Amino acid sequence: MLQLAVGGKTVRGARDEQGRQLHLLGVYQADPGVMLAQREMRHKPHETLHFTAALDLIADITGAIVTADALHAVADHAHYLHRRGAFGLFPVKENRSTLFAQLDTLDWDEHTNPHITVVRAEETNSGHHEIRIVRVQPLAPRQVNFPHATRALPVERYTTGRGDGKIHADAEPGITTAPAQTADAATLARVLRGQRAIEAQHFVRDVTFGEDACRARTGSLPRALAIFRSLAISPTHLAGWTNNAAANDHYRNHPTDALREFGLMG
What is the pTM of this model? Predict the structure, then answer.
């Protein structure tokens, strides 16, 4: 299953002549971890206006599940993905009040609703332990106010290890246009987790490559440098590296290995 994660990032050190910060909207292939496209946008509040244009940079997205944050849970995006033979999966927040209320009033008790499939996963990373519970239930046509919707899926997260000794709980509903024959409940749960991959790539660009500290701001240079940083990260993922800092040290000392990853050397 091809997952394309869409997410925005602010390049904090780059400003144009009017003092506006540079914002980029990226399309990231979650597995193996490659940035496929980035579109420049100078007005972050209008990120939704660049969603389709960013995906238009990719020739074929047929059969892909496209994930993004709640800002993109809008009808126009669902129609666009449907026209291109792709599917959407979005969280829903209270700013989409009608849809949020419709999802909230559904029967989410798996003991009384036999149509619910529950997927549970646990993960420990950097001292944080997280339990995720995803409940997936099918939707009838036009049952909710979202075009092409097939299933609803609230996510519960219980996290420990934040240093305060407490269990932190949060929950948010979600909606997908992917049919069950394309992605079962376990696949949807995995795809929901995969949206974090683009956020992790943004973190690497900031921490390992110092993107936010970069003061390049002339013309298209900041965007070009962001592309080069993403390009530098991609072959490490393709080669199976899980530690980006270690990968950078390796390729710095063995540059011919990096050329081989790009197919430039035999």
Answer: 0.88
